[in-house]
Design brief:
The complex is a heterodimer of chains A (114) and B (113). Chain A is mainly β and 114 residues long. In chain A, strands 2, 4, 5, 6, 9, 10 and 11 form a 7-stranded mixed sheet that branches. A 4-stranded antiparallel sheet of chain A has the order 1-3-8-7, with no helix packed on it. In chain A, a hairpin with a 2-residue loop joins strand 5 and strand 6. Chain B is built from no helices and 11 strands. In chain B, a hairpin with a 4-residue loop joins strand 7 and strand 8. Classes of the chains: A mainly beta (114), B mainly beta (113). At the A-B interface, strand 5, strand 9 and strand 10 of A face strand 4, strand 5 and strand 10 of B.
Chain lengths: 114, 113
C-alpha cells in the first residue's frame, strides 16, 4: 500500500457516458498527478496539480477534465470518450521541492471505452 | 526536454541468474534516477533510486549504477526469483519537481522457474 488510493479499479463506459475517477493520497504531499498508461508506451503525464492549482496540462483533449478540490483529493472527469482512450489511468503524488522528488503511484483505474 | 530510452523491452532469465536493464538519458542536467517495478494489476512502485552525486547504490539483491559521462544508468538484479517478474521502468528527473519525471518505455522481466 503506497498511500495513494484510486477508485474504481475497473471501469467500462460507453462513448456517451460521463464518469469520474477518484484519487486520494494520505501522505501529506502537496502535488498530485494523472498519468495515462497504454500498452507498450511510456507513461504519459496528463495533468499536474501543485498546491491545488493546475500547473500543467500536456495537450490533453477536453473530454478529460481534472479537478483538485484539496491537496488530498484529485478527480478526473470523463465525458464522450473514444475507444482509444482505453488505458490504465494512474494517479500519483509527491512533495514538491528539493532534489529527487519521489512519486508514489496508486493502483490505477483500468478504463475500457466501448 | 529530456528523453529516456530503455533496453531491452523484454527479458527472460532463469531463476537464480542475474538481470540487467539499461537506460540512457539525453539531458546532462538530470540529477535523479528512480526505478519503478509494476506488477500485474498494480501501479508502479519505487524500488531503488540514485542521485547524480553517487555512482552506485545497492539494496539487497538490487543495485543501480550511474555513468554521468555516458549518460546511462542500469538496474541490476541478482539471484532472481519468480516474484521479480514484472515490468520495470526507469526515469530521469530534471529538477526538484516530480512533474519533470521522464519515464522509459519499460522492460517486461520474466524469471523462469
Amino acid at each position: 500500500e503506497t498511500g495513494v488510493t484510486q477508485t474504481p479499479r475497473h471501469l467500462v463506459m460507453g462513448m456517451t457516458n460521463k464518469k469520474s475517477l477518484k484519487c486520494e493520497q494520505h501522505l501529506g504531499h502537496n502535488a498530485m498527478y494523472w498519468y495515462k498508461q497504454s500498452a507498450k508506451k511510456p507513461l504519459e503525464l496528463m495533468f499536474v496539480y501543485s498546491l491545488e492549482e493546475r500547473v500543467e496540462n500536456n495537450s490533453v483533449p477536453s473530454r478529460f477534465s481534472p479537478e483538485c478540490p484539496n491537496s488530498s483529493h484529485l478527480f478526473l472527469h470523463l465525458h464522450t470518450l473514444q475507444p482509444e482512450d482505453s488505458a490504465l489511468y494512474l494517479c500519483a503524488s509527491s512533495q514538491e521541492g528539493g532534489i529527487g522528488t519521489e512519486a508514489f503511484f496508486g493502483q490505477g483505474t483500468r478504463l475500457t471505452v466501448v | 526536454g529530456e528523453n529516456v530510452e530503455q533496453h531491452p523491452s523484454t527479458l527472460s532469465v532463469q531463476e537464480g541468474d542475474s538481470a540487467v536493464i539499461k537506460c540512457t538519458y539525453s539531458d546532462s542536467a538530470s540529477n535523479y534516477f528512480p526505478w519503478y517495478k509494476q506488477e500485474l494489476g498494480k501501479g508502479p512502485q519505487l524500488i531503488i533510486d540514485i542521485r547524480s552525486n553517487v555512482g552506485e547504490k545497492k539494496d539487497q539483491r538490487i543495485a543501480v549504477t550511474l555513468n554521468k559521462t555516458a549518460k546511462h544508468f542500469s538496474l541490476h538484479i541478482t539471484e532472481t526469483q519468480p516474484e521479480d517478474s514484472a515490468v520495470y521502468f526507469c526515469a530521469a528527473l530534471l529538477s526538484g519537481s516530480a512533474r519533470q519525471l521522464t519515464f522509459g518505455s519499460g522492460t517486461q522481466l520474466t524469471v523462469l522457474p
